[in-house]
Amino acid sequence: MGGAHSRDELLDSSDSEYEESENEASYEDANEGSSEGRVKTPSSIDDVDAKLKALKLKYSTKNPNPNSVKLYLHNSVDSKWEIYEKLTTYSFVKTCSVEGDSDDDEEEDDDAEKGFWVLKVGSKIRSKVGAEMQLKTLVDQRRVDFIAKGVWAMRFFAEQHYEAFLVQFQNCTFENTYGFEAIDENKLKVYGKDFIGWANPEAADDSMWEDADDSFSKSPASATPVRASQDLREEFEEAANGGIQSLALGALDNSFLVGENGIQVVKNFAQGIHGKGAFVNFGGGSASASKLVQSTPKKTLLMKAETSMLLMSPLNESKLRSTGLHQFDIETGKVVTEWKFGKDGTEITMRDITNDSKSSQLDPSGSTFLGLDDNRLCRWDMRDRHGIVQDLADSNSNMSTPVLNWAQGHQFSRGTNFQCFATTGDGSVVVGSLDGKIRLYSINSMRQAKTAFPGLGSPITHVDVTFDGKWIVGTTDTYLVVICTLFTDKDGNSKTGFAGRMGNRIAAPRLLKLNPLDSHLAGVNNKFHSAQFSWVTENGRQERHIVATVGKFSVIWNFQQVKDGSHECYRSQQGLKSCYCYKIVLRDDSIVESRFMHDNFAVTDSPEAPLVIATQMKVSSFSLSNRR
């Protein structure tokens, strides 16, 4: 499918458009052979209800069972909603198995301590309660949509019954996630007293979100406001020389496609990346270069005004960590050395590397970068302890592999289970963990986090932060979490959580999700990965979008819209505010990476730099333009 399509046909399908199949037997029987001809397929759930009432179907909802619902199934073939059961019931059951006969539930409840909560609806649906269900609430319609081997919707007959379901669902999700009953004492244990607003979002202080919106509207970068009428237009498409594994975007003249066999250099333009330059084959030249053939680099880092690149390969398919990295000289097109990670004479591993700050890859004299492992956060220096640049091993030399200098950092004794990290414009560090926690470290210390945001139950697999450090986006398998780090100190000054402890005036996070239909189309095994803000490296410039990848989808959120508390997405929700307004770019193959180019490449008639989307076989560039 052409990349220019932003999948508006998916986004425009109204949440109230529940169409009943014309072939449904019960509906035809209800017509009682009317000579007026076939009744038109109703276009919405309200039309369905009105039509059924007019036909005097024999069921009553005057005093419904509190657990009674009307159940709908989305027909993916015809792309429409159909009534699956006009009247059925749901229940939450604690069990040890999702699959199985409903008759077993009572027996399984005897062993409830070992079990988990399952939602049962009628005889068809049986699903473990949790984020994987992608439950979407629509309060004004007394309706929830969710995934359970298909896309379903339930509509409730009374508001109090709908609200009771949501409370039960949230409580069961909490217990399935944390292993504790959802009582205030346990929520305090999980979130901490300063973050209790995360457990009770309605009582959280959202003023910081609104204050930040004000600063956004006054910033120099907002002269061209983001409008809903903007379209993505494909500008360039390039075939790759080999399977693309990662994308290294430059802010200057070139960007780089790192593949299975080597590195392809491409040119940066205002419309995207285009034109094949030099191709460096991993198999040629030095012994260090030949090692890259055996293990394709999964992580790349540009340095020294983008004249040098660090390449880190995993030990093997099952071990994502690495004991070292290779340094690639872009100007000569050669891998010039191999470095080892070591501390106090002992070889150690790293799972991730990143630049010292958002703009440090543009520094021509930069020689340091950051490293992360499960229980380590450190700064590496390619100079020795005396500040002298270490000799690079010649391609034909028998010299031992040089060891990077551990310049700063900390090895944590207990399991922090770090997974990913990113840096701000001033070099502050945000770290995401397996338990979902997100920690903020100042530029002065890697030993103790200034702020530690609690997890929401899902591991953080990728994290990014804005240049000014005010906003964080964390990636989980099923949603993105956006956090505001701003707070007001005791002297009335506005600070970020990188600079000081935030106290208890902490805004609740907001979630970015796919609606259940899009999530189901993306595929049950496809997960969100690598959510990132658009790329700026100057004070006063504002990030305008967030982009993430799931399967063949590149998903784009308008960041200003996410921050707007009055946005329509948030009006009919309970719990943490979730934004479902996004654009989708669909590719033919699974996407390796989606990223916005540097803000330098945003042209005057576009509010954003081009979006670059890489699959293993090709890379495409899209411009965000205003409709005329």
UniProtKB/TrEMBL annotation:
Gene3D superfamilies noted in UniProt: YVTN repeat-like/Quinoprotein amine dehydrogenase
SUPFAM superfamilies from the UniProt entry: WD40 repeat-like (SSF50978)
Protein species of origin: Pisum sativum
Domain Vacuolar import/degradation Vid27 C-terminal as annotated: residue spans: 253-571
Domain DUF7135: 35-192
Acidic residues composition-biased segments: 11-31
Residue span of region Disordered: 1-45
UniProt-listed InterPro entries: CYPRO4_DUF7135, Vid27, VID27_C, WD40/YVTN_repeat-like_dom_sf, WD40_repeat_dom_sf
Listed Basic and acidic residues bias regions: 1-10
A Gene Ontology cellular-component term: nuclear envelope
Protein name (record): Protein cypro4
Superkingdom, taxonomy of origin: Eukaryota
